[in-house]
């Protein structure tokens, strides 16, 4: 650094418990952001935003260190922190930029082992960019870098934590949840379960914590509660293991403040994210998705043989003239969740399977069939014959990653390494057979949007973390496409930006998360769609009117006594799930559909079909549109107590439907902007009595011209309902029970 200026902040009163603490801080300023760093310890003392206010405040702690390194020293794991260095120095090259350096490891002034943190505030965006570099590691190997560890969050910790865990979830009062969980922490790996590289914690003011990684390196975002530090957010960077003297994270961490909520943070992220290669190469944006997928009006997620899976669809087609597609489980030879990849021949026989698929296509019904992209049953004959363990992922100590999903058979599945040509070839060969020999529409690649580390040195990929997994995953999808037909559709489980160039569809079951997760404090939000709706097609739901079916290949002794229609007390849950899919711009899905539902649950089926038809009328918003913040409903919508069911797919063994209640709004609303600048507001009324709502908002909030027309659309009926002028949009809507509509705002330029 050529110039060193230390900004001294006037001292605060000294608490007794921190007698030795000095209040001298280095102040960095740029745009609306101010950062204070302890000049003696490098601790982040404060982060303030001119309009949002104080985001981070930590006046006294001596342990809220910024970083921790996990290292391997002569075969032993070692944790290294700032406290292991005797000398600390902070230098400022400019009012908005600083370098923090830790030297003299274990008191040895001659040690070359140094840690340097660089901070710069971008004055235009008021975002701060942070990096960490490690030098002089000698024989030690770096395995993890935890940086930054952000504490001093008392201002926000009783607010809301929003996380792009696949589609997106939020938790209110996260400190309380973390504290009461007895040391539990939440963590999400990116790319993978974390679909985008940011999280946000907000109350009146918000903290934005992100990375600018363009190359899909492995990292983990976490939230935890520490008795001494309170709530802590951190990012753990996971490099590949290599004996190098130096390391620097190959991107920046971003810390910013804002006033708003998760939608504000998502907009901040979107301005960076859609410029990246995964967005530019997205299959939806580049119109690479097969037509049959784009035109699908409704997905049916059924399981079993053609008779059970496809026959009900022919009956449904009598009532629904939009294309129906099927997500098909349990078509395969072996039993579910313990026999993969022993899929072929299909359990009903090769000829029957082929004939039914051909017939279905003649009726406009296409199928995505289940094929797990990660797992191999380790008690199958093929596991031994192919010596599959050689190509499975290994932990640092060489252990396999094995898990028993199937509680009926207790046979486990083991994670394969996508970094091995063997596994990619094996999977692509299977996919080729299905796509070519059977003429299937595509493959549902279960567990595709998941990342693992692998420490097997014989696999030929960098060891440990790094970014080999995401690249190898894309390679696997390419190999499937190269062998299959051009119209092959590939779906992932969950959502993730890293797979936008590889996958056509992203299964987003969180729209129905209460059904499998219960009331665990997390609520679904359309966070992924709010950034990537026009780049990624989200579909799917666990939403069902039935108890989960039972695989004929599972032990008959465990078959549950009661299977069939769920009690109609849960109908409102079904309506909410389907309503969310509609307003959140997703392709709808009905799970476990049987013909008798047409007769026994006509109200629910008709409601679903109405939503599906209306959605198909507005692809410019609900398929290709960009997410906008929905206008506020006036008066605040009535809340209703909804009876919800939770039941796992493995119901039948010591598990029955669990019931819980939750207050939920009776009117749902979304907002989507079309490419030509019009605004579409999908609205669903879930109440059972007629109601009236008002909308009152400004045209400029949606970049709309000052005047225009308003249209109200229900199924096959678009009605002009008035105009707006002077930039003020106001309308009163009468809503019938269970009504769904699209309010369209057409500006006159
Ligand atoms: Zn491997």
Automatic annotation (TrEMBL):
It holds the Pfam family DUF6259. InterPro entries: DUF6259, GH. It comes from Sphingobacterium paucimobilis HER1398. This is DUF6259 domain-containing protein. It comes from the Bacteria. Residues 247-542 form the DUF6259 domain.
């Amino acid at each position: 650094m050529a110039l060193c200026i230390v900004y001294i902040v006037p001292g605060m009163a000294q608490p007794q418990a921190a007698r030795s603490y000095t209040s001298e801080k280095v102040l960095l300023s740029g745009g609306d952001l101010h950062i204070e760093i302890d000049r003696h310890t490098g601790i982040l003392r404060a982060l303030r935003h001119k309009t949002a206010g104080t985001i981070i405040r930590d006046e006294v702690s001596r342990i809220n260190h910024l970083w921790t390194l996990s290292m391997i020293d002569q075969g032993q794991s070692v944790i290294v922190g700032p406290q292991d260095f005797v000398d600390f120095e902070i230098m400022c090259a400019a009012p908005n930029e600083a370098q923090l350096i830790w030297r003299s490891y274990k008191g040895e002034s001659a040690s070359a082992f140094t840690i340097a943190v660089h901070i710069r505030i971008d004055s235009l965006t008021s975002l701060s960019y942070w990096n960490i570099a490690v030098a002089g590691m000698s024989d030690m190997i770096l395995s993890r870098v935890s940086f930054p560890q952000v504490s001093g969050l008392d201002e926000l910790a009783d607010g809301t934590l929003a996380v792009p865990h696949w589609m997106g979830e939020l938790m209110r009062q996260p400190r309380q949840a973390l504290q009461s969980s007895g040391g539990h922490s939440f963590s999400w790996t990116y790319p993978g379960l974390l679909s985008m590289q940011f999280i946000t914690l907000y109350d009146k003011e918000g903290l934005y914590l992100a990375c600018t990684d363009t190359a899909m390196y492995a990292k983990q975002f976490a939230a935890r509660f520490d008795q001494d530090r309170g709530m802590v957010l951190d990012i753990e960077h996971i490099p590949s293991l290599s004996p190098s003297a130096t390391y620097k994270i190959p991107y920046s961490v971003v810390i910013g403040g804002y006033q708003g909520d998760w939608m504000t943070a998502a907009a901040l992220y979107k301005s960076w994210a859609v410029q990246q290669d995964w967005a530019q190469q997205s299959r939806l944006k580049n119109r690479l998705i097969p037509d049959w997928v784009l035109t699908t009006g409704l997905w049916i997620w059924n399981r079993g043989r053609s008779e059970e899976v496809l026959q009900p669809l022919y009956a449904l087609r009598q009532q629904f003239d939009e294309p129906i597609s099927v997500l098909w489980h349990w078509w395969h030879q072996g039993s579910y969740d313990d026999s993969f990849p022993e899929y072929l021949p299909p359990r009903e026989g090769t000829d029957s399977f082929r004939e039914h698929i051909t017939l279905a296509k003649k009726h406009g019904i296409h199928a995505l069939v289940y094929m797990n992209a990660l797992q191999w049953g380790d008690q199958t004959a093929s596991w031994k014959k192919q010596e599959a363990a050689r190509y499975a992922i290994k932990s640092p100590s060489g252990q396999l990653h094995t898990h028993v999903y199937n509680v009926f058979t207790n046979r486990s599945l083991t994670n394969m390494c996508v970094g091995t040509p063997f596994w990619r070839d094996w999977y692509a060969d299977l996919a080729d057979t299905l796509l070519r020999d059977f003429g299937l529409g595509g493959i549902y690649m279960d567990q595709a949007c998941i990342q693992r580390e692998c420490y097997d040195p014989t696999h030929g990929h960098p060891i440990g973390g790094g970014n080999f997994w995401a690249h190898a995953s894309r390679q696997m999808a390419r190999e499937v496409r190269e062998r299959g037909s051009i119209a092959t559709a590939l779906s992932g489980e969950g959502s993730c930006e890293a797979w936008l160039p590889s996958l056509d569809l992203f299964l987003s079951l969180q729209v129905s998360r209460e059904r499998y997760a219960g009331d665990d404090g997390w609520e679904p939000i359309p966070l992924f769609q709010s950034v990537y709706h026009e780049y990624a097609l989200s579909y799917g739901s666990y939403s069902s009117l039935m108890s989960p079916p039972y695989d004929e290949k599972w032990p008959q002794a465990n078959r549950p006594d009661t299977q069939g229609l769920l009690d109609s007390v849960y109908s409102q849950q079904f309506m909410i799930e389907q309503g969310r899919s509609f307003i959140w711009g997703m392709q709808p899905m009905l799970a476990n559909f049987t013909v008798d539902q047409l007769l026994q649950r006509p109200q629910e089926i008709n409601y679903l079909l109405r939503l599906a038809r209306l959605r198909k009328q507005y692809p410019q918003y609900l398929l290709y549109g960009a997410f906008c913040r929905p206008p506020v409903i006036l008066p605040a919508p009535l809340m209703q107590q909804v009876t919800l069911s939770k039941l796992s797919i493995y119901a039948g063994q010591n598990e029955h439907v669990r019931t819980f209640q939750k207050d939920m709004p009776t009117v749902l609303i979304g907002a989507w902007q079309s490419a030509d600048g019009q605004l579409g507001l999908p609205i669903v009324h879930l109440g059972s009595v007629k109601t009236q709502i008002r909308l009152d908002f400004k045209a400029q909030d949606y970049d709309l011209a000052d005047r225009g027309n308003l249209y109200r659309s229900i199924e096959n009926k678009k009605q002009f309902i008035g105009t707006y002028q002077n930039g003020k949009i106001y309308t009163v809507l009468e809503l019938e029970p269970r009504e769904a509509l699209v309010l369209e705002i057409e500006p006159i330029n």
